[in-house]
Amino acid sequence: MATPRKNKSGTWSIRVYSHTDEQKRPHQKLLTAPSKAEVLRKAALWTIDRQRQGTPQMTVKEATEAYAKDERLSPADRQPLASYAKHWETLGQIRIDALTDTELQRWVDSLTLAPSSVRTIYGYLLAVIHSVDRRKRFDVRLPRIGQPDTYTPTTAEIRALIEAAEGDLRLAVMLAAYCTLRRGEVLALERSDLEGNILHITKARVTVKGGTIVKEPKTPGSVRDIPVPDSVRAEIESREGRLVGYTPIGLSAAFRQLVRRAGVHPMRFHDLRHYSASIMHAMGVPDVYIQKRGGWSSPAVLRRIYINELTDKAAEVSAQVNAFFDGL
Questions:
Q1: Same-domain status, 95 and 182
Q2: How many folded domains does the chain comprise?
Q3: Residue 323 forms part of a structural domain
Q4: Would you state the pLDDT for residue 305?
Q5: Of 50-64, 212-226, 242-256, 269-283, minimum mean pLDDT range
Q6: Across the strands, what pairs with 194?
Q7: Which of helix, strand or coil describes residue 200?
Q8: CA-CA distance, 279 to 305, in Å (whole number)?
Q9: Of all helices (H) and strands (E), which one includes residue 213?
């Protein structure tokens, strides 16, 4: 450690090692304090903290490259990093310890993307930063996301979809609409996952560069056992191996064609989960059970996103209300 020096102002200062740049040139950081003892204490804390935290003086670019090589990341987490990192290239040469709220806010404001995309990219950047220095906190205003663009199919539409579908696609629709399964969960299922009338949900199939992989489900609560209707059980028992042979992209494309063929309201495959949750909600099933069956992370998420009012149920209730007032 360098020797502290007393300044003309009466304060004390000391230089400590900061980092080595890409040209292998060492850099120092100047620390100051009112007394010699205090500046020595700050220098010691700096050294200890630097050793504990790794290298918070790494640039954003260096941290991103190191993060991409972290073997603890799943392939699904590592896959989008390269495309997201392109959006923060302008921050690349800024050191992690020198990154400020102003610079981050200016970068966020410069992104011409959907609010949800901005939040996702910002979240990945924070993961990179915190892999180097977990203490870093920022006060950044992110764009507000509006209400999710969701649609809850009616019972008539679900019936039309199932009648128009065949083979793997028919079973996929039933699993999502009747059993609240996500697309990835549907595609990872095998015949051995059914035991009696209980379907064990323990994995999900996701897209990665070069194909697909099977990984753990979205959240810890997504690992669950679901009692399935007899119609679904019969479909599963007639098969061997993988139950639905599509890729994630392939299933979404096949479902879009099915929607057009069945002549129902435009919807996503994921909207089938909305139907299942809404049906249970309309039947008076407690939220805690709906949450458990669907593998949602919290009741708040369930109520905010998935419990939508069914069109046909709303019409029935409206008719009852109007009949009551007409009776007055």
A1: no
A2: 3
A3: no
A4: 56
A5: 50-64
A6: 199
A7: strand
A8: 14
A9: strand 211-215
**Is residue 18 domain-shared with residue 91, that is, in the same domain?**
no
Q: Are residues 103 and 192 in the same domain?
A: no
For residue 142, is it within any domain?
A: no
Measured CA distances, 110 to 88, 103, 251, 327 (Å): 10, 11, 35, 59
16 against 161, higher pLDDT = 161
pLDDT tens, 4-52? 888 888 888 888 877 666 666 777 888 888 888 888 888 887 776 665 5
Contact 259, 161 (CB under 8 A): yes
Sheet strands (E) in 53-196: 194-195
One DSSP character per residue, 112-133 reads -S-HHHHHHHHHHHHHHHHHH-
CA contacts within 13 A on the Cβ side of 26:
6
What single-letter amino acid sits at 243?
L
For strands 204-208 and 26-33, give the pairing: unpaired
Q: By C-alpha distance, which of 247, 249, 232 is closest to 193?
A: 232
Please name which of 177, 183, 172, 148 lies closest in space to residue 272, comparing C-alpha atoms. 177
The domain in which residue 188 lies consists of: 155-316
198-201 and 224-227 beta bridge pairing: antiparallel
